[in-house]
Amino acid sequence: MSDLPLLHSPSLLARVWENQIVRRLAVLSLLGLAWELAALWQNNPIMLPRLTTTLAALAEAVRDERLLGAAWVSLSVLLKGYGLALAIALALVALAAANRFARDALQTLTAMFNPLPAIALLPLALLWFGLNEQSLIFVLCHAVIWPFALAALQGFESVPETQRLVGRNYGLRGPTFVALILTPAALPSLLSGLKIGWAFAWRTLIAAELVFGVSSGTGGLGWFIFRNRNELYTDKVFAGLLVVILIGLIVELGVFRTIENRTVRRWGMLK
Amino acid sequence: MTVLSPKPLAEPVRTGPAVLSARDLTLVYRTEAGAHLAVDRVSLDLAEGERLVLLGPSGCGKSTILKAAAGFLKPAGGTIALRGRPVTGPGPDRIVVFQEFDQLLPWKTALDNVMFPLVRARNLPRTEARAQAEEALERVGLTRALHQYPHELSGGMKQRVAIARALAMRPEVLLMDEPFAALDALTRARLQADLLRVVEEARATLLFVTHSIEEAVLIGTRLHLLSAHPGRTLTTRDVAGLTPGTPAFTREAKVVHDLLFPQAEAADV
């Protein structure tokens, strides 16, 4: 009396190609090849260094110029700003979920601030907080709070009514209800908000570091790029850009994609 | 427990105390357009081990009565009580099986879906909960699908998991809101038969909502017929022990049809 057979198992090649990391690596290889050919044809290392030269410069910068240290400086500022922004956004969303006026307020604020580029607030932040990490964290928070709050609010509001009723049926209330029913049910939107927030934070930070790089004696990645451009070490500029891109890819594919595959995709909540 | 009703209904006297009882239950739905009277002074008693079916056309408030029994909706008038205690809110002593397939939590496997309320609402240790959940899933014929997620299950299998989840909780009363309405006819027939079997095995007390006369006569030991706009009691019918396909079953279905739709002749059953 059991029902239908369930899943067919695809061939090995099809399964490898199903893996997004494999497909993206193929895209990256093609791009690298195009770069190398374009640089050979251009034959002007000040304007466009070759990929191989850039990789050598990258290795040298990692070895002699603490490029990874600079990346870590950027990342640690980023994580502080990101974490603080998520905490603030979740508090705002909790208020909005509990109170209709707070929800209207949050939606108005989001509509106002979401289109405003965070980097546009940097001059103001410098005026308020001075030339230091606090200014960076302020613009990072602005970059993350609004898109994440918007996604989280939409996620919680779109939890199916039946699942809410099921949770209440079991007598779940308050924080338990939020933790065991609402949060997993809203996870696709929450993850999407985390991803958007991360991307906004990362590009905001690099841009801010290009404007003023040095905080507490050590510069971040943006500062590394800016300094090398001033000295026309174009290969190192490209090396710095590569690191920016690599970290973005690692976080997107390594962290967010892994979380999605183990949760919302496995659960069929995200196609 | 004795419930004193000011207006006793013309229905057979039940032996044994009522598990669930409603007296002059009046339910109001509030929308932006205003308040609508959904259910008007309906009284009913559900005895231990009984299967009472609320039957009527859409708009008769049958699902609304079930929502009130579950505690999702507060009565605007009258009372509804579980073993004599007024229902004040939802609780795991009344487990609902919904029509919607998304009643299963998509982030939990079939087994985890059944275990979840056992652990969270009945506070069973995990090993104990797991054993009971496996047994419940076995009863509904799902031993092979224990570790599958809801999106990997067919509609019929999802409803089986939901039935297993409800039965495993051993609630005082099982509340079912058109659980088979979204299934195709063949799957529905099989699930009806299996539901009857597992409910009888578990000696569960059942309040079942449907708009299908055949399903009502098949599932119920007693029918509570309602008229629409607003929902009012028409009458009740004892339908225990009728076998589908027999003349007695067909006759009863026709009688019920004529009671629900008095103006139309029974040509379109």
Low-confidence stretches of chain B: 1-14
Main-sheet strand order of chain B equals: 6-7-8-3-9-10
Number of domains of chain A: 1
Compute the separation of the termini of chain B in Å.
41 Å
Please state how the strands of the largest beta sheet of chain A are arranged side by side: 1-2
Largest chain interface and its two residue counts?
A-B, 27 and 36 residues
Could you give the order of the helices and strands of chain B?
Answer: EEEHEEEHHHEHEHEEH
Strand content of chain A: under 5%
- Assign the CATH topology of the largest domain in chain B: Rossmann fold
The CATH topology of chain A is given as MetI-like fold
Q: What does the largest sheet of chain B look like?
A: 6 strands, mixed
Tell me the number of strands of chain A: 2
Gyration radius from CA atoms of chain B, angstroms: 19 Å
Instruction: List the uncertain runs of chain A.
Output: none
Question: How many DSSP helices of chain B?
Answer: 7
CATH architecture of chain A: Orthogonal Bundle
User: How many H/I helical runs of chain A?
Assistant: 12
Account of the protein in words:
The complex is a heterodimer of chains A (271) and B (269). With 271 residues, chain A is mainly alpha-helical. Chain A has helices spanning 12-18, 20-42, 51-64, 67-98, 100-113, 122-129, 133-157, 161-169, 174-185, 187-211, 221-230, 234-262, and strands at 214-215, 218-219. In chain A, strands 1-2 form a two-stranded antiparallel sheet. In chain A, helix 4 crosses helix 10 (187-211) and helix 4 packs across helix 11. Chain B has 269 residues and is of the alpha/beta class. Chain B is 32% helix and 25% strand. Chain B has helices spanning 62-70, 110-120, 126-139, 155-168, 185-202, 213-219, 247-260, and strands at 18-31, 34-47, 51-55, 77-82, 85-86, 94-97, 173-177, 206-210, 222-227, 232-238. The N and C termini of chain B lie far apart (41 Å). The chains are: A mainly alpha (271), B alpha/beta (269). Chain A binds chain B through residues 1-4, 6-7, 160, 162-163, 165-166, 168-172, 176, 180-181, 184-185, 187, 263, 266-269, and chain B through 70, 72, 90-92, 94-96, 98, 100, 102-103, 105-107, 116-117, 120-121, 141-145, 148-154, 156-157, 187, 190, 194.
